[in-house]
């Protein structure tokens, strides 16, 4: 972000602030507030994976957040340097909280496409959905056709994999997610969708 790494980075440069205002859905005032909170929790300006997981644990204390937090961390960490900078954090937060439908779908696709090859396989989707089910809780109230990750994945693939090639392209995902919003809605961590980890 153009700043030296010291014990604590207390202020964003005007250039970085301007860039973040242009590239996110936040005002300068909001960016400054988020930055103060981020630096308070991460004085080095770097959010590490274990710290990121602890944030998820606060929201889902009875679930196992480790797998899902790891997947989300990898999407936030766009430069793959094993920590999240404030800019990476704010950009992802902007997309997931205020982004357009297409921005949210693109972000969600990036999460499900674990190996970043441009397609989502059954194995990748199963890994993400299993992690979600482990994180959020009980499947008791779910319909029988969705009460396991495998059943949910089978239903999603039957709806989205239009060419039946065993993988979902970005276009198939965007079209299908607009028809079955659960795939994207669950990524906003809405506690109305509950599931269980065996």
Automatic annotation (TrEMBL):
| Molecular function in Gene Ontology | calcium ion binding
Query: Domain EF-hand spans what residues?
Result: 64-99, 100-135, 148-183
Q: Cite the InterPro entries for this sequence.
A: EF-hand-dom_pair, EF_Hand_1_Ca_BS, EF_hand_dom, Recoverin
Entries under Pfam families matching the protein: EF-hand_7
What the entry lists under SUPFAM superfamilies is as follows: EF-hand
Q: Sorted alphabetically, which keywords does the UniProt record give?
A: Calcium, Metal-binding, Repeat
What's a GO biological-process term for it?
A: regulation of signal transduction
Q: Would you identify the family this protein belongs to, as annotated? A: Belongs to the recoverin family.
> Know the name of this protein?
EF-hand domain-containing protein
Source organism (scientific name): Trichoplax adhaerens
Q: What broad taxonomic lineage does this protein's source fall under?
A: Eukaryota, Metazoa, Placozoa, Uniplacotomia, Trichoplacea
